[in-house]
Structure formats: structure tokens, C-alpha cells
Amino acid sequence: MFVEPGHTILVHAAAGGVGSLLCQWANSLGATVIGTVSNKMKAAQAKEDGCHHVIIYTEEDFVARVNEITSGNGVEGSLACLKLRGYMVSFGQSSGTPDPVPLSSLATKSLFLTRPTLKHYNVTRDELLEAAGDLFAKVSSGILKVRVTDTYPLSEAARAHEDLQNRKTTGSVVLLP
């Protein structure tokens, strides 16, 4: 998926570690960013991280709200409200394995669905160093701000995972040895 100025994207879990960075990155590229979160505290964080519109999915129907925001044109990023020939990228699953997507549902709008893993995008050492260099340059320049909100001793890794699964965390979670 290529995010360009004028695109509208939807980021679920916009206040999570990856979601926070994705919102900042897409905003820096000139995209309109819609984020979903579970509560008002996370909504404030998502706004700080570049979301133009934040939907608290526990309080409103995010599909209806996305359609309202986009005047029915849809977005990149969520099967239920994708635009014609839209892309959905499923990355991460801290709260469990996502439901399977019937392939026939993609045909209704000629949709694209991908489930990337980092190891396929940084296969060689050179690719890894280039990607890491790009990331650290964006952090150094202030385009991306890594939000570490929760730290756990390594001995409490199980609790950290439970908190992630139960959506008790925001930003990046760090385990300390």
C-alpha cells in the first residue's frame, strides 16, 4: 500500500505502539488519518499522533462514522468501509487472531488484502539496515515520536501480554531485563 497526499486511511488501535507510529507517518505524508480507539484517553493520544478524526468505537459505529467523514467514499484500511479497489493491511494481533475473511467478500469492490510480516520486507542485512536507517532518521528529525507508556520487568512479561490483550496499554510497551 502506498500512502500519498489526498489518501484517507483508517487505523484501528490508533493509540497502540504500531498504530501511533502509523498515524504520525501517514499524517507526515499528507494523508487524512482516521483512527479508532476504545476510550477518551486514547482518543486524545491519537489526536496528538496525527489523527484528523478519532472514532471511539465503544461509543459509535465506526463504519457509519467513516462513511460520514468520507461522504460515502470509503477509506484505505478496514474491510467494512473500504473504497472501491481499496487496500486493507492487517498487521499485529495483540488482542487475538483476527476473524477469517471470506475471499468472496473482496470481490464486491475488487479489494486488496495483505497480512505482512517484517521478516519478508527486510530479508537481507542491507534491507534491514536501510529500513532501520529510515526509521531512525524519522525519529531523529521529529517526524515520528515513539511513545513508551508502559514498562514491565521481564519477569512480568505474562502480565504485559495480558494488558496488551485486554487493551489496557497505549503506545509502545517495553520489557526491562
Automatic annotation (TrEMBL):
<dbReference type="GO" id="GO:0005829">
    <property type="term" value="C:cytosol"/>
</dbReference>
<dbReference type="GO" id="GO:0003960">
    <property type="term" value="F:quinone reductase (NADPH) activity"/>
</dbReference>
<dbReference type="GO" id="GO:0070402">
    <property type="term" value="F:NADPH binding"/>
</dbReference>
<protein>
    <recommendedName>
        <fullName>Alcohol dehydrogenase-like C-terminal domain-containing protein</fullName>
    </recommendedName>
</protein>
<keyword id="KW-0560">Oxidoreductase</keyword>
<dbReference type="InterPro" id="IPR013149">
    <property type="entry name" value="ADH-like_C"/>
</dbReference>
<dbReference type="Pfam" id="PF00107">
    <property type="entry name" value="ADH_zinc_N"/>
</dbReference>
<dbReference type="InterPro" id="IPR036291">
    <property type="entry name" value="NAD(P)-bd_dom_sf"/>
</dbReference>
<dbReference type="GO" id="GO:0035925">
    <property type="term" value="F:mRNA 3'-UTR AU-rich region binding"/>
</dbReference>
<keyword id="KW-0521">NADP</keyword>
<feature type="domain" description="Alcohol dehydrogenase-like C-terminal">
    <location>
        <begin position="17"/>
        <end position="83"/>
    </location>
</feature>
